[in-house]
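The material for today's practical consists of a large collection of protein records. Getting from the letters to the tokens is the skill we practise here. To make this concrete, we reproduce a full record directly below:
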Amino acid sequence: MYIPEELRRQVISRADARCENCGLAQVGQEATFHIDHIHPSSLGGMTELENLALACVSCSLRKGAEVSAFDHQSGETVPLFHPRRDLWNHHFRWGALEIIGISATGRATVEALVMNRSITLGIRREEALRVRHPSVGIAVKTESWAI
């Protein structure tokens, strides 16, 4: 779907050029991040600033047109994380480089978007070493990661 350039710039600026789901910085990434409809256009979501989020390719492709996912701990289908309505730290926390869901929405989002795949952890490690990732405030055991 076409996103006007000015609207695209506003989304990127608001997100500080970071994925609004996992926090990955666009800088240093080969693939251009996507402007995603939080409430998918296929389900009636509008192409307006409040319904758009910046998402890395991994989060964007895994979210697709989904708005909910199953939380195995609660046994319920719950809404996915919504960057305009939800506060990140109410649903997630950092555990070294892993994103840990601390609510049903957080757990379901981490699983649905496969936020802790090994390649993603490697990218986060590199980003942390370059002081570009939100997890840099947490001690990173670099010797435990294969290069």
